[in-house]
Design brief:
Chain A: This is Alpha/beta hydrolase. Chain A: GO terms for molecular function: hydrolase activity. Chain A: It comes from Microterricola pindariensis. Chain A: Keywords: Hydrolase. The complex is a heterodimer. Chain A is 38% helix and 17% strand. By secondary structure, chain A is α/β, with parallel strands linked by helices. In chain A, helix 7 links the parallel strand 5 and strand 6. The longest helix of chain A has 18 residues. Chain B has a single domain, classed as Alpha/Beta hydrolase fold, catalytic domain (Rossmann fold). Chain B is built from twelve helices and eight strands. Chain B has an eight-stranded mixed sheet with strand order 1-2-4-3-5-6-7-8, sandwiched between helices. In chain B, helix 5 packs across helix 7. Chain B is globular, with a radius of gyration of 19 Å. Chain B starts with 19 loop residues before the first helix and ends in a 6-residue tail after the last helix. The chains are: A alpha/beta, B alpha/beta.
Chain lengths: 328, 337
């Protein structure tokens, strides 16, 4: 049963149409995942184009993957340092995890944020390439991301990063993977994260909330796209009690002892209710979280309608949390 | 201020490190505990405890005016203070209007306590503000307070042309009890076919009389507005029998409303480290479930009223920016930062 949706902010309507035309031209179904990947490859600019004349340096590296799994590619993004300049003070670090429903995209879908943070806050970013479903289902993606966090923390000195000030950050599937990495770091006694920035995170495979029914055949990343993605990740395990919280963090029964969370989502999107619930459960455990649900906003609004008043406010609130959390 | 620990197993969300010293400062000069019996004796000093409107403006470009308006049927008249950008008259282009309802648990406070909040909004956004006085509990239990607030909104809508306000762009707003009253006024306006409000700005609103949420137990003996004060306030407003009851009126405790559809756009803000957090999140969630328009902000480590107690903090500045952004959007204020 679908439910009456929260309406869109009038200023976002054009941006949503643009998003649908650019990103979701082909409805995401089990038999269109590959076609969507090919399409994505045409809309993600290469690193050279993303950086252009901006004062950032970047390099690709290959780092060890999870035990028994292939190596992982990462791209390091950092503020440009003049040749011969003295080493800067240790910088904050951001592990950036791209979106794409766990089935689409590459790390270069998320490097824009890292370039921006390098320029404005001197942050050193690491963008991680993780394996996609359905070829690599379950927790393969989360394990790749966690391997990147371990590598990042272990190589902090080499990268000029303060190991006490590393956060994990991502949007959509990247937000869900960021939440998963925070759970894994807690459970495994791994690197101490300074924060987890979860932008419209994809957390819950069950797709049973009110908001998941309000955006059925409507909007960006609608209920059907979400179903396709979770089916690809979890197959027959989906909806069962056997789903790992590292695949779907909403399945975690204990949200205590996590790093401070920033959770941001639109009021007019599928993920609204599962994201609000995640914040509520962190607070109930005495954990720190900040929650922003932006009026009339579609999935990914701040990236695709960046000049709208609501998007400007969302970017400012996010930046405030980054400053507070990283001591900038 | 009791030093009692929170119940076993309930761990509060910690306070923002920049805010924590404010709490320590407040704890150094504790206020006498509130009680039903002691509340009426506090009334004579309320109006003069804070500067009057002219002193509060302190030379800034804002005009102010005191008015006496009709109260609810059969009830006394109501005092309101109007603030407007300097020199604005009814002959100029009509401005949006904010009707502000002060906080204080429905048992304390005076509109002059919030002159600064209101003046800043007039300066920042170029709006007219009507700051309304209302009767306090326990001397005046439900529905006295909310009916006074509703009368203030009704008067503003009916006299919009006279005060230079645009009747299509009236937002009701308030913090804490004022947020609860604002939500209740929005419900009343819907249910009585009253003024069409452009929005409801609910700052850490006091909505739920049952005191059953996790947050309501996490701030028992710590923070700025603690569980004991809240329990007392609801007793004063609703009486012993209904104080914690789900049978209370939604116009007293808006969380009791079973239908949250057809309401004006809501802005709901609270701290993550305060007892109203969960009831405020729930109110937003239930508005969205009906297809209604709401924006929700829960600020990390914010205690109840953090923006008033620590206005220079990064957290308060960020909260004000989000608030102003929403007002810009709702009131279609072009070019106002």
């Amino acid at each position: 049963m679908s439910a009456r949706p929260v309406p869109y902010d009038p200023e976002l309507v054009d941006g949503l149409a643009g998003f649908l035309e650019l990103v979701e031209r082909i409805p995401l179904r089990a038999d269109t995942i590959l076609a969507n990947r090919e399409h994505f490859a045409t809309i993600i600019p290469p690193m050279e184009a993303q950086v252009g004349e901006l004062a950032v340096d970047w390099e690709n590296r290959v780092i060890p993957g999870p035990a028994g799994a292939p190596d992982v590619e990462v791209t390091i993004v950092r503020p440009r340092r003049a040749p011969g300049a003295a080493p800067a003070e240790a910088a904050p670090g951001v592990l950036g995890i791209h979106g794409g429903g766990l089935v689409l995209g590459t790390r270069f879908f998320g490097t824009g944020e890292l370039i921006d943070l390098a320029l404005r806050h001197g942050v050193v970013g690491v963008a991680v390439e993780y394996r996609l479903a359905p070829e690599h289902p379950g927790t393969a993606a989360a394990e790749d991301c966690y391997a990147a966090l371990e590598w990042f923390a272990a190589h902090a000195a080499e990268l000029g990063v303060d190991p006490e000030r590393i956060i994990v950050s991502g949007a959509s599937a990247g937000g869900g993977l960021s939440a998963a990495v925070a759970l894994m770091a807690r459970d495994r006694g791994g690197p101490a994260l300074a924060g987890q920035l979860l932008n419209c995170p994809m957390l819950d495979d069950r797709n049973e909330t009110v908001s998941s029914r309000q955006y059925d055949g409507l909007g960006a990343w609608d209920r059907n796209n979400n179903d396709t993605a979770w089916n690809a990740v979890l197959g027959e395990l989906r909806h069962s009690d056997a789903v790992s919280p590292y695949a779907a963090p909403a399945r975690a029964t204990d949200l205590g002892g996590l790093p401070p969370a920033y959770i941001e989502v639109g009021a007019a999107e599928v993920f609204r209710d599962e994201d609000v619930d995640y914040a509520l459960r962190i607070w109930a455990a005495g954990g720190q979280a900040e929650l922003h649900v932006w009026a009339g906003a579609y999935h990914g609004f701040s990236g695709f309608s960046p000049d709208a008043v609501v998007s400007q406010a969302a970017l400012a609130a996010r930046d405030s949390w980054i400053r507070r959390t990283l001591g900038l | 201020m009791s030093a009692r620990a929170t119940p076993a197993g309930v761990v509060p969300v910690p306070f923002d490190p920049e805010l924590a010293p404010v709490l320590e400062f407040m704890a150094a000069s504790p206020q006498p505990p509130l009680s039903w019996e002691s509340l009426p004796a506090t009334r004579p000093g309320l109006a003069t405890m804070f500067p009057g409107p002219v002193e509060a403006i302190a030379g800034r470009a804002v005009d102010t005016e005191e008015r006496i308006i009709p109260g609810p049927a059969g009830a006394p008249d109501i005092e309101v203070t109007i603030f407007r950008p300097r020199g604005h008259t009814a002959a100029d282009a009509a401005l949006p209007a904010l009707v502000n309802i002060h906080g204080g648990g429905m048992i304390l406070g005076h509109r002059h306590w919030e002159s600064e909040r209101v003046i800043q909004l007039v300066l920042e956004l170029g709006v007219i503000a009507v700051n309304v006085e209302y009767r306090l509990a326990p001397e005046h239990p439900f529905p006295a307070g909310v009916e006074d607030c509703y009368a203030g909104v009704l008067w503003t809508a009916e006299h919009a042309a006279e005060i230079g306000a645009d009747p299509e762009r009236i937002v009701v707003m308030g913090g804490s009890a004022g947020g609860g009253f604002s939500a209740a006024v929005a419900l009343l306006a819907r249910d009585r076919g009253g003024p069409a409000l452009a929005g409801q700005l609910l700052l850490c609103p006091m909505l739920d009389n049952t005191n059953t949420t996790v947050a309501s137990h996490q701030y028992d003996g710590i923070g700025t507005w603690m569980r004991d004060a809240n329990l007392l306030a609801w007793r004063c407003v609703l009486g012993e029998e209904l104080a914690l009851s789900t049978a209370a009126s939604p116009y007293a405790a808006p969380s009791r409303a079973t239908d949250l559809s057809g309401l004006p756009p809501a802005f709901i803000e609270a701290g993550a480290a305060e007892m109203f957090r969960d009831e405020d999140v729930d109110y937003a969630t239930r508005i969205w479930a009906t297809g209604g328009n709401a924006e929700l902000h829960i600020w990390a480590g914010g205690f109840h009223g953090f923006d008033m107690y620590a206005p220079e903090s990064e957290l308060a500045r960020a909260a004000l920016d989000a608030r102003h952004s929403w007002l810009r959007r709702i009131l279609q204020l072009e070019g106002v930062r």
